[in-house]
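An example makes the point: we print one protein in full, the chain in one-letter code, the fold tokenised, without further comment:
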Amino acid sequence: MAQPMDGSPRATTEDLPHYPRPRECPYRPSPALADLRGPRPLSRVRLYDGRTAWLVTGVEEARALLADPRLSSRADLPGHPVLHESHLHMRATREMAREEDGGFAGVLFGVDPPDHTRQRRMLLPSFTLRRVQAHRDEIQRIVDEVLDGMVERGSSADLVDAFARPVPMMVVCSFLGVPYQERDRFEGPASTLFDPARAEAAEAELTSYLEDLVRRKAARETAEVGGTPGLLDRVIDDHLRTGELTVDELVAFALAILVAGTVTSTQTLALGTLALLDNPGQYALLASSPELVPGAVDEMMRHLSLVEQLARVALADIEIAGTLIREGEGILIGFAAMHFGPDLSSHPDEFDIERPPVGHFAFSHGIHHCMGHNLARLELEIAFRTLTGRLPGLRLAVPAEQVPWYDDLTLARLRALPVSW
């Protein structure tokens, strides 16, 4: 028979462990997460406001739940877990994420089937491995160009500003067909979209720019700014002109892809490089053995665990692993807790690029598995192979503990990464 609550005599809220656990190191989650991996794959945790949610730390249970249509991604549902009060003021979470608000949570990430299925069907053809591989030469050109500029300016740099931020932005712009020459209109807002104080204004600025760009592309007016065809052009031709898609929905698609495709890749490049440099021998090993790059990228994504959890809400009673999740209860799929458990890695607490994990949840799983995983993986592999090959002597210019960073419980981020070579 399924057990209520946490599988033990009913506990009071005060008795439950708190969640989330703040990071002590920028490139790995809190070691205190180990305390939450108990004998059961699901347990109850207490959030900042005293509300509770289920935390899933079992790998098989997580995969089953992420594929279960009885879980909802809608952040406007009352039981949706919120990790910090500041998140209530961001359009990508909870009340602010209602679809009629036009926020990017209203497409892809924040909707359920059948809307989600319809949206993915329109976009997936652009993200096939074959389509993505066609961008290999362009991505290599971008990485080479950015590194050339960085090296020409001297023998030291802030790797975030000089490499980790521009490469993903240029790659995603090329993929979407967004003119990078117009970056003054979108780079600033994109960088502040997850700042609670700036989120609403940033989204409004980005939306205004993308509405203008879609209008110009639909009217074939982007040639004067060097615009090249990309995903937006294909979707305009295949779905907007047919009436299957509205301009507002296409703008929301573009906003979601532009943000999701830059923020996480930027921090994987920045934090991944810090992890390589701060763990003796790892950077030099990758520089001398480029064949290790694909596995090293997987190990970075496991160890960094940039997205530590995904929030869901049960749409019906669900019995799993002898536990009953009731309709309306919040669920947190604990990616970071699983990444540092024994099921996915032979060395969960170590960072070792020679022993990549047998799997990870960096791209999620199930119906919301990241559409852009082929593009992200190709971009990261080219970037790390080129960086380590061109600058095998790269080193931190300050002690690792002095590297400035912050964690707002959505994504750990480096403010800067001073390096020299």
About this structure: Residues 302 and 360 are 6 Å apart (CA to CA).
